[in-house]
Design goal:
Mean pLDDT: 88
Helix content: 25-40%
Strand order of the largest sheet: 2-1-6
Number of strands: 9
Largest sheet: 3 strands, antiparallel
Number of helices: 4
Radius of gyration: 16 Å
Low-confidence stretches: none
Protein name: Pilus assembly protein CpaE
Shape: elongated
Number of domains: 1
Strand content: 25-35%
Order of helices and strands: HEHEEEEEHEEEH
Length: about 140
C-alpha cells in the first residue's frame, strides 16, 4: 500500500478516484479531527462502505459501522490508497517494466520517447512516484 503522503500528493496532482469494491482509503477531514481517525484505513465494500453517486458528487456511505457516528463522507474528504495493480493500470501504455534490484524496486515508464526510472524499497511507492510524474507532465 502506498504511503498517505504519496496518496495526498497524487490527489493534489489531480488523480481522479472512482470508488469500487475493495478500494482502500483514509479520511482527510478538517484540522479539528483527531489524527488517529485519519490514520484508520477503510475498505469500500457493499457490506460496510458503499460508494453512492449523487447529482452533487460521490459520497462514501458507512453502513452499520459502530466505531463512529459517521453516516457518510464526500469523496473530497477521502484519500484513495491505490493498490499496486491499480497504479500500474493508471500508468497505462507508459509502463515499461518493474525490476527487482538488490534493495529496491525500479519502475520504468516512457513518455514521449524518454524513459524514466523510479526506485523505492516498496514497489507500490515506485509505481506511485512514476504516476505522479505522469500526471505532472500531462497538465
Amino acid at each position: 500500500m502506498i504511503s498517505r503522503e504519496l496518496a495526498v500528493e497524487l490527489k493534489r496532482a489531480g488523480l481522479v478516484w472512482h470508488p469500487a469494491s475493495g478500494d482502500r482509503f483514509q479520511l482527510d477531514l478538517a484540522d479539528d479531527v483527531e489524527a488517529e481517525v485519519e490514520a484508520d484505513v477503510f475498505t469500500v465494500s457493499e457490506m460496510t462502505i458503499e460508494s453512492h453517486r449523487t447529482p452533487s458528487g460521490t459520497i462514501l456511505g458507512f453502513n452499520g459501522t459502530t466505531e463512529w457516528a459517521l453516516d457518510s463522507v464526500t469523496i473530497g474528504d477521502a484519500v484513495w490508497l491505490p493498490r499496486e495493480d491499480q497504479l500500474r493500470e493508471l500508468l497505462r501504455s507508459t509502463f515499461r517494466t518493474l525490476r527487482r534490484l538488490d534493495d529496491a524496486f525500479e519502475v520504468e515508464i516512457e513518455i514521449g520517447g524518454a524513459r524514466m526510472r523510479f526506485e523505492h524499497p516498496d514497489a507500490s511507492e515506485a509505481y506511485g512516484t512514476a504516476l505522479l510524474e505522469l500526471i505532472g507532465r500531462s497538465r
